[in-house]
């Protein structure tokens, strides 16, 4: 496929955005940010054409229309060297004769976690492929394009500079731009892009599922229109209204209501969802492009008292009227019936539901940490989200794309980046050491040795990268090049006694500390397990490192691990990874397990995944189940008390200064419940591909779970004291 761009972009030399996090960035040379472009071409369709498929890609993004009908959007964010195109079946959208193919292109231009933007590339590539009746020979038609910059959109960046607000001027919007009859003769011609470093490949995941539903808003006494969508979603708000040209509506979206029951649009997560819509005469449409995470909507007409006398004289005092409200939800395709907890304790069912919702709306074209503030695919978050999402969808295509994209980040640093793809360069040591967990997860679900073999060198090179920080006994010391996270936020680190780096001003204490070494030993153990599966000799010995770790951090009197060599404090985090990776001395296992299970979670929601699974691995199932359902301030029941419809970024809204209310890294209950309590373990070495070893608590009288694994449908049911597995 050939790439086309605007004339002003054709002469730009793109910037290389890849760099180590602490290295200076190149200065962006491009003509602007937040650029919307409307592009059109035509295609003549005949009845003897079969299986018409449009191959299409754009940088940063496209929305595709054929003859005025929305078709799809994409591609998934990707590194330029492995850029994606989509194959879109379009026969159902075509009519005999001339057809209009229209594309709304977007170049964000900001350096952030969303796209590989800020590099000066704005481009479109597309071709039609079909076969003629009675022929298997593939026919291809390339296109020439006309385009126009769209000036209807304006607004400031919000969140972590991840989204431009979409103030929208309907007077500058051409309603019929995507239909065949529209006259585009005065539009400029797009020109070939001269960039040679794109390497296109078919997107390995499905396009987003886009669903619309009409909303009937409530008209309030203050003149506003208000709607509660019933729960947090990821999507966009489409509107129609009537009023005089120049009159304005203020659109507020949010995850919560304030004390006056108005929408809290200045959200606690750091996004400010207030946008201004300027109407034209007659009926106007509000047409957003980007998406938000929100539950509530409130629309205010402009106060007449704020309108100038001259505008009043021209009739602008006329109050606009809202005619239609439509919500367009978006997420990676997920059949709600693939994985269903049909019968269980009510609180457990609600916990399962909020975790399922967060994974649904947080899995877009990648595993997002959240669909609001950051909109990026973080490696540590993905370890939990991918595990949940594989169960909820019965598929591993998104997991494999995630594995591959973080592997691609090795070109920037062999120790991997914390976010991939994206032009925001961020490095977190803890997350890099967990990448091999994703590779092992894929093997457990698929049994695909060749896929593991392909990515084994990445797991090997991660260890080689961290080896440069080894001291005399093999433990890591002063890993300053990447952020040592331990847990997030800081107030959920259980008092971990270590001076850790600050995001803005990294400062590291020189002592060797616990968590990064436990994760390092775990990564080496995982590498050895991968090598065993591949029939390779073990490249590293992890036992000497275990012994050094015990000498450095173990307190034989307490039978707990300390946070660092110089500390007497034992945080949960100094013990959980030691138990998870089975490096706790046998005499201390019970003490460590009791320590992890005491009270409620003394950690963040991400770390809770390892707490639950570590306890289960040591067969403390009842303790883990009690933690799952604990009613303290640190647990999923607390999220429910605070009105969660998706699991939160922290245990409660006020436990982090900028908590997002849709964060799938808190979805640990899904894999824990299915694998550790219900007892269905994907096990490629087993003849059936799984083992069934249920450990549901005795006081859980009724339990019914249905799910799909490797294309087969299963049911786990408990009645009274017996738990049985059935293939449906």
UniProtKB/TrEMBL annotation:
Any one Gene Ontology BP term: carbohydrate metabolic process
EC number annotated for this UniProt entry: 3.2.1.40
UniProt cross-references to InterPro entries, sorted A to Z: 6-hairpin_glycosidase_sf, 6hp_glycosidase-like_sf, Alpha_rhamnosid, Bac_rhamnosid6H, Bac_rhamnosid_N, Rhamnosid_concanavalin
Annotated Bacterial alpha-L-rhamnosidase N-terminal domain residues: 47-207
Pfam family membership, one: Bac_rhamnosid
Alpha-L-rhamnosidase concanavalin-like domain boundaries: 219-299
Name recorded for this polypeptide: alpha-L-rhamnosidase
Enzyme class: hydrolase
Alpha-L-rhamnosidase six-hairpin glycosidase domain sequence ranges: 338-676
Catalytic activity: Hydrolysis of terminal non-reducing alpha-L-rhamnose residues in alpha-L-rhamnosides
The species this protein was found in: Marvinbryantia formatexigens DSM 14469
A GO molecular-function descriptor: alpha-L-rhamnosidase activity
Coiled-coil residues: none
């Amino acid at each position: 496929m050939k790439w086309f761009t605007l004339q002003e972009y054709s002469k730009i030399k793109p910037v290389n955005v890849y760099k180590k996090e602490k290295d200076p960035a190149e200065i962006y040379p491009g003509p602007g940010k937040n650029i919307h472009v409307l592009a059109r071409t035509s295609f003549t369709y005949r009845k003897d054409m079969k299986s018409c498929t449009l191959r299409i890609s754009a940088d940063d993004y496209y929305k595709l229309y054929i003859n005025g009908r929305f078709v799809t959007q994409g591609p998934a964010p990707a590194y330029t060297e492995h850029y994606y195109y989509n194959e879109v079946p379009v026969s159902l959208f075509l009519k005999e004769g001339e057809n209009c193919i229209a594309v709304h292109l977007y170049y964000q231009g900001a350096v952030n976690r969303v796209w590989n933007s800020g590099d000066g590339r704005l481009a479109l590539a597309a071709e039609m492929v079909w076969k003629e009746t009675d022929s298997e020979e593939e026919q291809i038609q390339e296109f020439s394009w006309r385009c126009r910059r769209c000036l209807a959109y304006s607004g400031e960046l919000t969140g972590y500079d991840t989204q431009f607000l979409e103030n929208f001027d309907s007077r500058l919007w051409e309603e019929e731009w995507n239909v065949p009859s529209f006259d585009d003769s005065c539009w400029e011609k797009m020109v070939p892009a001269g960039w040679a470093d794109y390497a296109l490949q078919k997107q390995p995941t499905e396009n987003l599922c886009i669903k619309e539903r009409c909303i009937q808003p409530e008209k309030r006494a203050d003149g506003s229109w208000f709607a509660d969508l019933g729960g947090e979603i990821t999507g966009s708000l489409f509107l129609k209204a009537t009023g005089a040209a120049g009159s304005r509506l203020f659109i507020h979206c949010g995850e919560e209501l304030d004390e006056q029951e108005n929408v809290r649009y200045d959200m606690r997560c750091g996004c400010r969802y207030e946008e201004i819509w300027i109407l034209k005469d007659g009926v106007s449409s509000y047409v957003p492009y980007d998406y938000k995470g929100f539950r509530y909507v409130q629309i205010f007409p402009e106060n007449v008292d704020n309108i100038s006398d001259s505008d009043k004289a021209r009739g602008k005092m006329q109050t606009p009227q809202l005619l239609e409200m439509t919500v367009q939800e978006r997420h990676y395709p997920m059949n709600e019936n693939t994985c269903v907890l049909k019968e269980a304790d009510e609180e457990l069912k609600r916990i399962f539901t909020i975790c399922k919702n967060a994974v649904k709306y947080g899995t877009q074209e990648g595993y997002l940490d959240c669909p609001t503030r950051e909109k990026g695919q973080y490696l540590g978050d993905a370890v939990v989200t991918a595990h949940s999402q594989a169960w909820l969808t019965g598929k591993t295509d998104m997991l494999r794309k995630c594995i591959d994209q973080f592997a691609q980040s090795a070109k920037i640093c062999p120790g991997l980046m914390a976010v991939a793809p994206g032009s925001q360069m961020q490095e977190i040591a803890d997350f890099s050491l967990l990448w091999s967990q994703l590779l092992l997860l894929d093997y457990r679900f698929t049994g695909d040795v060749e896929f593991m073999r392909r990515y084994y060198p990445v797991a090997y090179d991660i260890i080689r990268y961290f080896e440069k920080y080894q001291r005399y006994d093999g433990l890591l010391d002063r890993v300053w090049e990447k952020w040592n996270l331990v847990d997030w936020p800081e107030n959920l680190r259980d008092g971990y006694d270590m001076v850790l780096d600050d995001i803005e001003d990294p400062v590291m204490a020189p002592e060797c500390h616990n968590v990064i070494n436990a994760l390092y030993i775990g990564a080496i153990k995982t590498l050895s397990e991968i090598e065993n599966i591949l029939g390779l000799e073990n490249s590293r010995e992890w036992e000497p490192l275990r012994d050094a770790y015990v000498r450095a951090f173990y307190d034989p009197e307490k039978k707990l691990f300390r946070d660092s060599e110089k500390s007497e404090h034992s945080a949960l985090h100094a013990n959980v990874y030691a138990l998870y990776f089975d490096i706790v001395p046998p005499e201390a296992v019970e003490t460590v397990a009791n320590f992890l299970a005491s009270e409620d979670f003394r950690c963040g929601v991400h770390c809770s995944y390892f707490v639950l699974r570590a306890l289960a691995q040591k067969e403390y199932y009842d303790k883990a189940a009690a933690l799952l359902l604990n009613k303290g301030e640190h647990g999923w029941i607390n999220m429910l008390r605070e009105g969660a419809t998706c699991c939160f970024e922290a245990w409660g809204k006020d436990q982090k200064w900028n908590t997002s209310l849709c964060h799938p890294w808190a979805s640990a209950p899904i894999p824990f419940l299915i694998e550790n309590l219900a007892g269905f373990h994907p096990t490629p070495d087993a003849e059936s591909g799984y083992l069934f070893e249920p450990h549901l608590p005795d006081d859980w009288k009724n339990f019914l779970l249905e799910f799909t694994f490797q294309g087969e449908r299963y049911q786990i049911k408990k009645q009274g004291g017996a738990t049985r597995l059935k293939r449906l």
